[in-house]
Amino acid sequence: MENILKLFWLMFSYNQICMAFTDTKGRTFSLAFFPEYITPATSDLRNILYFSSTLDGGCTVNYNDGTRHQTNVHVIAGDVVKLALPDTTQLLTGTRVEHKAIYVNCSTEIALYGHNKYALGRDTSDAFTVLTDEMLSTDYLVASVEKTANLGVVATRDNTTISVTLNATCDYVFNSVRYGDGDTVSVTLGYGDVFQLGLASTDGKCDLGGTRIHSNHQVAVFSGALYVWELDLAAGHMVSQVPPENAFTKTVIAPKVETDEPGGMTLRVLARENNTVVTITREEANGTIVTSSTSLNTAEFEDINSDLSADVIVQSNRPIMCIQNIYFRRRGGSSLFVPGTDLYDNNYIVESLDLDGVSSDGPFITIMSEVSSFMDVRVNGQQRDDIKWTNLTTVPYAVGVLRIQPKQPYVVNSSSPILVRLHERLYLESYSYNAGYRLPSFPKKLTNAIELKCLAKGWFVTLNVDVLYNVTLSHIYMGQSKCTGTLHGNQLIFNQSYTECHTETSVSNGMVMFKNRVMFVALSPDNVVRHVIWLHSISCSEPVDGTNAVLIYPDFNETVTGSSTGHIQGPSFDISLFKDASYQHLFSGNHAQAKIGEPVYVQVSSSVSPNTIMVLRSCDAQIGNGKEVPHPLIENGCAVDARTQILVTRNSVTRFEFEMFDLPEEQDGIYVTCHVTFCDQSDFSDKCKQQCHTSPHIIG
Hints:
There is one protein chain. The chain is an all-beta fold. It folds into three domains: about 1-10 and about 565-690, Zona pellucida, ZP-C domain (Immunoglobulin-like, Sandwich); about 20-440, no CATH class; about 445-545, Zona pellucida, ZP-N domain (Immunoglobulin-like), CATH 2.60.40. Strands 8, 11, 12, 13, 16, 17, 18 and 19 form an eight-stranded antiparallel sheet that branches. A seven-stranded antiparallel sheet has the order 46-43-1-53-48-49-50, with no helix packed on it. It is elongated. About 45% of the residues are buried.
């Protein structure tokens, strides 16, 4: 006689977003080079791309200098490769649409950096980290810079409609229409198009901080200044790529800038939500600590001014974004996004960029690391004694500065997350860029992308794939990996029976409920699901007049958990699951969960005549299809290994525990099957004794 207990791998329910990350290394990129001065350059204008990777590979660069061209780049493992594009790939000044998007497609993952400069007469430059297309979004909140601000939007496909809602201190003119604070500029872009909201002079005090951008397709957004010029501080051209809203964070460290040139910085703190309380701590070089606080609402920002020798720490109760704008007295400067500490990565390749002459400052690498692990930082495989570390007081982090040789690649890594950035200054030229960072994986707005219809015989779910740019559709499924959708146009359709795809069925209050999940998973190189990037719960219901039936399904999570029916009663004996060794707390409901490695306490009991003895013979775990060899837990009354222990044996009860585990290739659940023998109480034969029946050892 046997009874069966079915165990499943279950994921958390209800629209839970599991935290998976994507870094700035990728295979596809979309960008543009924005103008550096009010008049077009006639010579000495340089638009340069830098490619780095840990693997050899190739990239194709599609650009427009008046005509669409395509060129190939050979990427060398552990090196940084440069590609200079023609002058005319740079956009003109003003608010306009130009067909000058640049697209990069690579055979291996790379990190990509842009550097544009105008040497003749103006000596201005800046650099920026290019985000992979996988990180792009449809919604952005722009921090901007405080003067002569511009922004640009790069389309990634045809029929891209964008809406730019201005939070502006001046007006911008587009197609002969003047737009000011509170107005929305709408435009439709095609593949290859770039929309630029910009000025044609350097006189404006224009600030676009808090401006919102929304689009129907993923776009790349850039922000900066045409050319900043003031009597006391000047920065020249400034540019950075705007990360999407999942880059907002709660702890940011804006490090000092190693330099001999007088100057200052403005750290802009932008709030995403109302009632954001921000604490700013400035740790100065002389040991002075200055703390202030402010409260911000949605799209509001606070500017913190500081000298370049101070480390500034920003902490908040709600997510914020920080932009660091750096200014030098004799012109030169840069603008860059400052990633939060939860966005740090582990591995980077950096190299100084082209400047016209011998560098005045640096080049310098700045490294942010936890104090507990800064000694783990390696540069080209070595622990460097010449990194100048400063331990911060406000947070348990250290800031390290290392001067490097120009135009040589440096591999910087650590066992713990770090942030690496590079800056350099030459007279009037300067630039800075992050060597990379990571972001929580897209998308966020699944609710608006998924439509559910509850048909009489099954599910009909449609998913708008336009929100899933650069995503492998076969990694999206309903309930289990074999239930992938069918693509019709831009709609991924799941049309499945209520008895398929691990649909959970339950009856309550006169209604039958059907529940399932649509999920997007990330496969590791060994083709195993290790991350669930997002999950969306779906349910249908209908009146029922009948008995309760429950079908539970397997699911996956970064933290794998176990699940069971909790209590399944057979014709003559029961199997019950308990959470504790005292057998006081049953797993409740239909979804008993136990993490891998945690003990599960099992009670096998009989309610037959007291004159009958129940003897537990064996229990094993087996995949539901019955085709695989069972995994034994108990054999011949013996625990098969130390992970299973028999605790109590009596006439009608056996208790044992085992550590929760998974089985490879599990699709339809894991069944635990127990076999028992019933004997008369007066039968004293070996088969009717609850004991370990092992084979005798032969000696000699």
